[in-house]
Amino acid sequence: MPETFFPILVLLGVAAIMAATILFLNAVLGPKLRTRKKLETYESGVPLLDASRKRVSIQFFVIAMVFILFDVEIAFVYPWALVFKAAGWPLLLEMFVFLAILIVGYAYIWKKGAFDW
Amino acid sequence: MTLVDGAIVVLRVVVPALILPALVIPLVWVERRVAAFIQDRPGPNRVGPFGLLQSPADIIKLFTKEDVVPAATDKFLFLLAPSLAVFAALSTFAVVPYGPTIRVAGKVIPMVGADVSVGLLYVFAITSLSVYAIVLAGWSSNDKFSLLGGIRSSAQIISYELAMTTAAAGVVLAAGSFRLTDIVAMQEGTFRLLPVVPRWNFFPQVIGFIVFFVSAFAETNRLPFDLPEAEAELVAGYHTEYSAMRFGSYFLAEYINVIVASAMTATLYFGGWSLPGFHPEGWLGGLLGLLIFAAKTAFFVLVFIWVRWTLPRFRYDQLMRLGWKTLLPLSLANLLWVALLAIWRTSR
User: Fold this and answer.
1) Which among A42, B83, B276, B344 is least surrounded, fewest beta carbons within 10 Å?
2) Could you tell me whether strands B97-104 and B107-112 are parallel, antiparallel, or unpaired per DSSP bridges?
3) pLDDT at A1
4) Distance in angstroms (rounded) separating the CA atoms of residues A103 and A106
5) Would you say B140 and B173 are in contact if contact means Cβ atoms under 8 Å apart?
């Protein structure tokens, strides 16, 4: 079975080489006229106004946490979906229990306003 | 395994990887011409016949421009990010079946890069890598526009990935396999109750298809979900500081991702290379299967372009609301519906 993954390994190598080649060719072909002004950080044509690494909205953090929760849910759902046809009703009931617990959490997050910006 | 067999195994996966970036050149021309058609203007029509040489000219220009690396950037990550974008975009297609299994000169050649048992998982794993390309670009640029674009993108892509993977779980359930060739095989022929309708997953799982396809727009950062680059607010978003082919890498990756997302939609919901009544024989059958697959993929690529020039951009709160409050519950409902359908089918 592992040998079916061999072409993927080849492709990953080819993809990496192509990605590197593109940038290498550009570095060789392009001019190199560095000036101090050119290397400044972009700020719509005026001198840089303030720092770029400032605090960002807490909402992004909340979304990231909720994502982990649901990503684990999907990690459960995929093997369930794979073997579902073999078992039928009992598996469906189990998934209802699992989803019911999940949906309680989902409703709580919704109510708390994690999805409102 | 002889040398010829080995060469075939390698060519099966490498040839598509070389064709995909080459397809981007005509695709950019198509996008610009379609945009012009929708907006009632001529579009690029000066370089070569019908402006066909416009894209090659643009590529040459991108390659011969200066590769500016601003002083404030994190040099290594700034270089890594665009390479990662191209790497992820090129790697995804490996497991997608692009044609039937053909027999040529006594050799059995399945027209798929690598027919692995975890095909669909591989696709989702590799497409998730592209979020790193954007986040790292946003962070390493050390520019507020890039940073905002990168952070927006990370939240957007992970949000829509949930809906997308849950919708695709419906397809896994119906096929009982992650293997994409199995998913295509189960969609051959027509429904027993309605013998004129092809057995595509699209018909029983239309909700799943809608969730999957809408999420595909968010995953590829295309309008109406191109918040990470939103040129009216963020200059150019995560690639503000990029120039020449480093910018070109993102451009290339975006278009390859559009092709791959279309190919995945065709494979999961529209039967891939199969058509009812089409039984491939020999190399001609292989070619026909390839053409059917290409036609289905091209259709969805055109829908991508069509939508881009039809819908306005979403606001960020609207984007999050759509993803979490509409698409996610819909994808779960679709999953339960498919489960009930599977029970009904087996109980008959």
Assistant:
1) B344
2) antiparallel
3) 63
4) 5
5) no
Residues of B numbered 113-142 whose beta carbons fall under 8 angstroms of chain A's beta carbons: which are they?
113-117, 121-122, 141-142
Nearest to A5 among B21, B65, B114 (CB): B114
Q: State pLDDT tens for residues B273-288.
A: 888 877 777 778 888 8
Interface test with A, best of B61, B62, B76, B158 (most A CBs within 10 A): B158
Number of domains within chain B:
1
- The whole-number pLDDT of residue B287 equals 85
pLDDT in tens, B294-305: 999 999 999 999
The whole-angstrom distance between B185's CA and the closest CA on chain A is 16
Alpha-carbon span B23 to B59, nearest angstrom: 13
d(CA B158, CA A115) in angstroms, rounded, equals: 14
- Taken as a whole, chain A contains a residue count of 117
Comparing CA positions, the residue from A114, A16, A97, A112 lying closest to residue B87 is A16
Angle B181-A18-B141 (CA atoms, 0-180°, nearest 5)?
Answer: 110
Tell me if B59 is assigned to some domain: no
Sign of CA dihedral B269, A74, B218, B331: positive
pLDDT band at residue B1, thresholds of 50, 70 and 90? low
